[in-house]
Amino acid sequence: MISQGFGLDGFIERFGVQRRLYTAGASKSRLDPFLPEKQEDVEWLKDLQDQLHAMFKDWVVARRGDRLRDADDLFTGEVWTGAKALELGLVDGLGTVRGVLEERFPDAELVPVEGRKPLLARLGLTPPASGAGLISTDSLLGVAQAAEIRATWARYGL
């Protein structure tokens, strides 16, 4: 488990910024980056991290059981390659999504799925060559991308 943040209390004081914080509950502003760090908050966070780390270890051990090797070193936060994870018993095998699906479901018909094409391509439009017309290709593509991003956010009412 890892947590990080910034201590900006001296920064805002130096520049004369006043922060106003209103809470209901004594622990709402725990580890606030704009307030001086309190040792009791750091101890609370470390205790929480220890609890979560223990839960994670128990979860992995319960699911992987005796397939795990060298269990003492598994939960240090290291990152392993697939080959090393296989050696340690963290995974059952290595492969690609397509390869594993073909092996496990030999009678299934795999249908490739492609990502969405850009808006202009979906409309069957191609931007003019650079220098032709009044709008450059980059500008036109930028407008199209902005419209597509806006449309995506609009789906969520934002």
Condensed summary:
44% of the residues lie in helices and 0% in strands.
Topology (elements, then pairings):
Layout (H helix, E strand, L loop, with lengths): L8 H6 L24 H26 L17 H7 L8 H8 L14 H4 L14 H18 L4
Shape: flat
Mean pLDDT over all positions: 84
Our count of domains comes out at 3
Oligomer: single chain
Sequence of secondary-structure elements: HHHHHH
Low-confidence stretches: none
Instruction: Decide which structural class fits the backbone.
Output: mainly alpha
Give Rg in angstroms.
26 Å
Gap between N and C termini, in Å?
Answer: 33 Å
Specify the number of helices: 6
Helical coverage, percent range: 40-55%
Number of strands: 0
Percent in strands: under 5%
Biggest pleated sheet = none
Labels describing this entry:
158 residues; mainly alpha; 3 domains; 6 helices; 0% strand
Write structural notes for this entry.
This protein has 158 residues and is mostly helical. The chain has six helices and no strands. The two termini are 33 Å apart.
